[in-house]
Amino acid sequence: MSDFPDTWRKPPFIRNTLLRRGLWIAILAYVVFTMATLPIDWERVVAGMDRAAKIFSGAFPPSFARADLLIDGFMESLKIALLATVAGVALSIPIAFCAARNIAPMPVYYLGRATIIIARSFHPVIVAIIFVKAVGFGPFAGVLTLTVYSVGFVAKLLAERIEEIDFGQVEAMRAAGAPFFSTLVYAIAPQILARQIGLSIYQLDSNLRASAVVGLVGAGGIGATLANAFGRYDYDFALAITMVIVGVILVSEAISGVIREKVA
């Protein structure tokens, strides 16, 4: 009989048994402490359930009587998403080149990475509140918000793709005496083009969803229409809006999936 076991078990992430169990106990204790110290008012929770039941009972059946208002809000969201995607992607390309360690000098690399980190640091709702305070209510604040959101996402992933390219083509052009800009266009751009197109399509889809969220704080689009419906206690119209949002997102998800398959 062999001295070696017949089966293999993946070794634990933390090999020290005492340390591993102690960590689990600490996590469990912290969860219990958090639940015990959070100010949860169970009477308000019960009252909230009653209010939620009234909202849902008032939402059915959904009302499409003000379809023109719904279409106007949705078209505004589409414009916000489209403009923000174009502006965000256009800004993301040079920032991504600056943030790629393999082609950018170290000071430029740190500047590019800092720009991406700042763009990714805040949730779009927080950025929307800042822009609403700065430029006022309306779709322009939404465009600015989603432009920043697009830069944080597209520039980060594009920079990572640039760092993964086959660097032999770059070295060959440098050895032939090609200038820096020609090297970017002919040696790097063809290798990242498919990822760039895929990211742009995905970001348009993401911006369309996010435009509904930032509209809730006054940045225009269908989110503002939804917030007004809730403010007027028009729950049936609010349900109609949410149904349209879900339907549009499903359609855009299917279209972007097909396009990404064609591009890949």
UniProtKB/TrEMBL annotation:
Task: Provide the transmembrane region boundaries.
Answer: 21-40, 80-104, 125-152, 172-189, 210-231, 237-259
Q: Which GO terms describe its cellular component?
A: plasma membrane
Decide whether keyword Cell membrane is in the record: yes
One GO MF term on file is: ABC-type phosphonate transporter activity
| Compartments, as annotated in UniProt | Cell membrane
Q: Which UniProt keywords apply?
A: Cell membrane, Membrane, Plasmid, Transmembrane, Transmembrane helix, Transport
The chain positions of domain ABC transmembrane type-1 read 74-256
Q: What is its main location?
A: membrane
Record keywords: Transport included?
yes
A Pfam family cross-referenced in the UniProt record is BPD_transp_1
The membrane-topology field of this record reads: Multi-pass membrane protein
NCBIfam families assigned: PhnE
The family line of this record is:
Belongs to the binding-protein-dependent transport system permease family.
Q: What is this protein called?
A: Phosphate-import permease protein PhnE
Its ancestry begins with: Bacteria, Pseudomonadati, Pseudomonadota, Alphaproteobacteria, Rhodobacterales
Q: Which gene is this protein's source?
A: phnE
